[in-house]
């Protein structure tokens, strides 16, 4: 089979690897679609994502979906040909957490994640034609949800987890600062959870177009001098830019809530934080997700449309080009998808950038 393998900084290849055989308790998936995430780009560009550095080649990808190709011994409740996606996290150890964070498995200190170099040996991801996966991590797709949508259940789960970290949103005004793929999905998740008015802010007009298509009522083009709104009940900071912290704190209402979704640097940065104290703002972190991938699948079944997020599609053998487009701020890309299977019914045949951009109003 073919797999997208990063060998070091700037070195990604489509390698031939042996097709896996499912062991006891495992499921062999014939994969169809994968979504490129920021960590995939980081491994390709820098050979590391956060503190996880490559020690040897790694198959990229933790957003993927496909169909069951074979069942290992002891697997029940699944059938060959069934469309599925995957929860990419697996706890390492006994899984016991302190009572104060009981059930919050995203905070467990040792987690294997598909497409991650955090452990050695690394945990290969799903940007390949086939992948053997523990059955416990497989999630069947609801009727009417295709595998391309199913591949985006994982980032939608991240957005739903972030929205769940905030107070009840029904009828509230929400600001989402930073409208990359996760920010735009936070827009959709806030709308799904009943927000009354959703404002999206970004420096790129292409990202704002996606945010509008995902449900934003209003947009602020920060590059054109638009100001963030004032006195917003709940703010989601999804850019991860330290320079944004002062403005989003100022935009948050007195006594309001700021949810930090974008990953901030692990090094010292300058940021204006005075409003955190004087306005008594509750500043909350949000990291990955617990089991919100199940809610994400229900939301997709119920009509939450993630397709406006998809701006580019590439076949597996053009993975490096796909990564370059996803990494280029000038490309107008949002979510870049890889077609992992060679023959997928009803799949787009090309990565037509013009058509993809037109689909989100660029």
UniProtKB/TrEMBL annotation:
<dbReference type="InterPro" id="IPR013154">
    <property type="entry name" value="ADH-like_N"/>
</dbReference>
<protein>
    <submittedName>
        <fullName>L-idonate 5-dehydrogenase</fullName>
        <ecNumber>1.1.1.264</ecNumber>
    </submittedName>
</protein>
<dbReference type="GO" id="GO:0050572">
    <property type="term" value="F:L-idonate 5-dehydrogenase [NAD(P)+] activity"/>
</dbReference>
<dbReference type="InterPro" id="IPR011032">
    <property type="entry name" value="GroES-like_sf"/>
</dbReference>
<keyword id="KW-0560">Oxidoreductase</keyword>
<dbReference type="Pfam" id="PF00107">
    <property type="entry name" value="ADH_zinc_N"/>
</dbReference>
<dbReference type="InterPro" id="IPR013149">
    <property type="entry name" value="ADH-like_C"/>
</dbReference>
<comment type="similarity">
    <text>Belongs to the zinc-containing alcohol dehydrogenase family.</text>
</comment>
<keyword id="KW-0862">Zinc</keyword>
<keyword id="KW-0479">Metal-binding</keyword>
<dbReference type="InterPro" id="IPR002328">
    <property type="entry name" value="ADH_Zn_CS"/>
</dbReference>
<feature type="domain" description="Alcohol dehydrogenase-like C-terminal">
    <location>
        <begin position="181"/>
        <end position="296"/>
    </location>
</feature>
<dbReference type="Pfam" id="PF08240">
    <property type="entry name" value="ADH_N"/>
</dbReference>
<dbReference type="InterPro" id="IPR036291">
    <property type="entry name" value="NAD(P)-bd_dom_sf"/>
</dbReference>
<feature type="domain" description="Alcohol dehydrogenase-like N-terminal">
    <location>
        <begin position="23"/>
        <end position="143"/>
    </location>
</feature>
